[in-house]
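Example (one chain per record):
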Amino acid sequence: MANERLRDALLSRGLTPDELAARIAVDPKTVERWITKGRTPYAKSRHKIAAILQESESYLWPDALSEAKASEVSNSEIVKVYAHRNSVPADLWDKLLARATTYVDMLVYVGMFMTEKPGLLELLRSKAEAGARIRLLFGDRDAPAVIQRSTDEGIGPHTISAKIDHALAYFRKLDGVPGIEIRTHGTVLYNSIFRFDDEMIVNPHVYGKMAAHAPALHLRRLSAGDLFTTYADSFTAVWEHAQPHKWED
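Predicted structure:
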């Protein structure tokens, strides 16, 4: 059976089988067999391919790793767990953002704490100009899930909506910048997600608690792991159903 996931990942990256073969130093016919016959590469080659294609091994070759081994690797993707998001060191946020060159993704309702970083807008603009893809997802102020979340936090039904207005006003300067997209969503926010290339801060939400007081996970992607990819896929699912934000004049 052909490996359509591998074929699609190559196409998405604009790579031919011959080009992949050259990059990992194998015979082009070997790569063709991996695709057309569904052969599974050795672990060393799987690691290289997953890194090049920026996909997890478990996605490209679901049967290559046992469930126990995949779980073990995924556990290793957890760099550190913080009891509260506001316990994440400020310099860690700065380092992750500074190092990111390809992807910067943010899924929040508000994310107001990010606006406290001096020069944030200029930095995001410069990264986009250098070729990074930046996607910012904020809550839809009128969405029932947003209003319910505000009520659950005990701060009144419309407080988070007002905060969203404030956050969007701040980020409006990035509207129309090539490489930067800003959308709003009305989904139930189970986690806030902040991705910086192959590292991520995930902020799982807790009923009745402000996001700053809920835990945070620092993740670093491993090619054979599933945890990082799970949250990256969750971001994509919300992004695909979100709407480009339109500011009122």
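Caption: The two ends are 55 Å apart (CA to CA).
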